[in-house]
Design goal:
Structural class: alpha/beta
Helix content: 40-55%
Bound molecules: pyridoxal-5'-phosphate
Radius of gyration: 21 Å
Number of strands: 16
Oligomer: single chain
């Protein structure tokens, strides 16, 4: 199976090359040229497997350069009980008749990104061998909070790799920042950027497209690569948990095999919801995707009107990992639905040039056939956390709360009563201040006092990964200008090489 660039269908690479390259040289993203299928019988067989086996079975269909045994040994490492200390790895919590919360936050950094970023270093180092790359790889990450820590944890001390993480100064939660600046490892670098997430992401993107810089680094024995969700190696592990969630519903006899469900995802860069879309294309019975946004509701507007308008105010919200205006992975969906690289390129060129584009009526119709959408204000996010706690005793984080609110609005409006998998993307303990405030229980004190307060309300202990940060040493305090990111990388390499 081959992959091609969304902006040039004749630019083709293998699965391993797609993972090594991250982004296509023309600026496009890699997509599989055909989507493998999962029959009902195969789905049935997955139901009796554990998470690592399910994940290997899904991933091997997209990664023909890897054998089944190879992938199974990698998924067993990535999803080991020491890393995801909870039965089922991605447990499903039944809230009511419709709503089933898929808890994706039991990994080492308490956000769903661990599912991808525990796998990516393993996939990448194996892919480097398969493609004969000899240089060290330097992973560049722009993070709105959760990717940074998850990538640092995944890559720390992985031989032949270095990782440099940039986050928007003041644009991540205190806990997220602490997680990053205390990261251990001899191959890691963390810096804050004066600007918002889009500035940070644009900075990283422009470094990736700087051919002269890439050549200079290559001379020093370093090849740049990406761990952002534009890398196919990030997306493919995420497909597995939707399949796994369906198996869980089936195992608990909440659905019949073949009965369709909805999926609701709190969305930022569109990676997580796109993984669900791939699961559907493989044959998983999913009816509708409900795309939930916070006040940065560019996707809500787009899915309603067909016009993607990036020239809009940027809001810093209590769900910072969704504070995004350019939703990179949407490009993959648009390409696969419009099926012409020319058409897709015209949209992306317009976005670059004018800051906006409008898709064809035919494409909008296809999007609307599968996607519903909605957004949730800051005030509604707080209410959603409070209402969920009061009704069910369940403490949702700020991102998950956005999804819960948007889903409930969808259910009221549409009357659709299908079972729905709601992706819970972060642990509430990662955002203790915002969650306590929503619950009317904010009493001051530092983040760790807040963890204790939240723990009492949630009637469960705070994750060790977070409470232990208290004892960790601060390692990184560098703040750089948007224009200074390249220098940070060069300096780091100078010290290492
Ligand atoms: C990254 C992130 C999101 C957004 O996911 P996308 O794949 O970028 O749409 C939502 N919630 C949390 C907690 C995240 O870390």
């Amino acid at each position: 199976m081959q992959y091609c660039s969304t902006r040039n269908k004749d630019y083709r690479v293998s699965d391993a090359e797609a993972i090594v390259k991250g982004l296509s040289p023309d600026g496009g993203l890699f997509v599989p040229m055909e989507i493998p299928t999962l029959t009902k019988t195969e789905l049935e067989a997955l139901c009796s497997m554990d998470y690592a086996a399910r994940a290997a079975a899904i991933m091997e269909r997209f990664l023909p350069s890897f054998t089944h045994d190879e992938l199974l040994s990698l998924t067993k490492r990535a999803y080991a009980l020491e890393k995801f200390p909870v039965p089922g790895t991605a447990p499903l919590v039944e809230l009511n008749e419709q709503e089933n919360i898929l808890e994706l936050f039991h990994g080492p950094t308490c956000a769903f990104k661990d599912f991808a970023l525990q796998m990516l270093p393993l996939l990448l180092t194996a892919s480097l061998k398969k493609t004969g790359v000899k240089e060290d790889v330097m992973i560049l990450v722009a993070t709105s909070g959760d990717t940074g820590k998850a990538a640092l944890t995944g890559f720390a001390d992985v031989e032949g790799t270095h990782i440099c993480v940039f986050y928007p100064d003041g644009g991540v939660s205190n806990m997220q920042k602490l997680q990053m600046v205390t990261q251990s490892g001899n191959n890691v670098m963390v810096a804050a950027v004066k600007g918002n997430f889009d500035d940070t992401q644009n900075g990283v993107k422009s470094i990736f497209s700087d051919k002269a810089y890439a050549a200079e680094l290559l001379k020093r024995g370093v090849r740049l690569s990406s761990a952002n969700s534009i890398n196919w190696g990030r997306l493919v592990p995420q497909i597995a948990y939707y399949v796994s969630a369906y198996c869980e519903l089936r195992n608990r006899e909440l659905t019949a095999l073949g009965e369709s469900v909805n999926v609701c995802v709190p969305t930022g860069n569109f990676g997580n919801i796109l993984a669900a879309w791939f699961a559907k294309r493989m044959g998983l019975p999913i009816d509708r995707f409900i795309c939930a946004s916070n006040s940065n509701n560019v996707l809500t507007d787009f899915l309603q009107s067909g016009t993607y308008e990036s020239r809009r105010p940027f809001y810093m919200t209590a769900s910072p990992s969704m504070d995004i205006i350019i939703s990179s992975n949407l490009e993959r969906l648009l390409y696969l639905l419009c099926e012409s690289d020319l058409e897709l390129r015209s949209y992306m060129d317009a976005l670059q040039k004018d800051g906006c584009y409008s898709v064809s009526p035919a494409l909008l119709k296809k999007l609307k056939a599968e996607f519903s959408c909605g957004f949730c204000s800051e005030e509604e996010t707080e209410k959603s956390i409070k209402a969920t706690y009061e009704k069910y005793g369940y403490v949702a984080d700020t991102h998950t709360a956005v999804a819960l609110k948007v889903y409930e609005e969808y259910r009221e409006k549409s009357g659709d009563r299908k079972k729905t998998i709601i992706a819970a993307t972060a642990s509430p303990f990662k955002f203790p201040k915002a969650v306590l405030k929503s619950l009317g229980a904010l009493e001051g004190g530092d983040d760790f006092a807040m963890l204790d307060a939240l723990s009492a309300l949630a009637k469960s202990p705070a994750p060790k990964q977070l409470s232990e940060l208290k004892e960790k040493k601060l390692r990184f305090s560098l703040v750089c200008e948007k224009e200074g990111m390249k220098k940070v990388i060069s300096q780091y390499i100078g010290e290492k090489k």
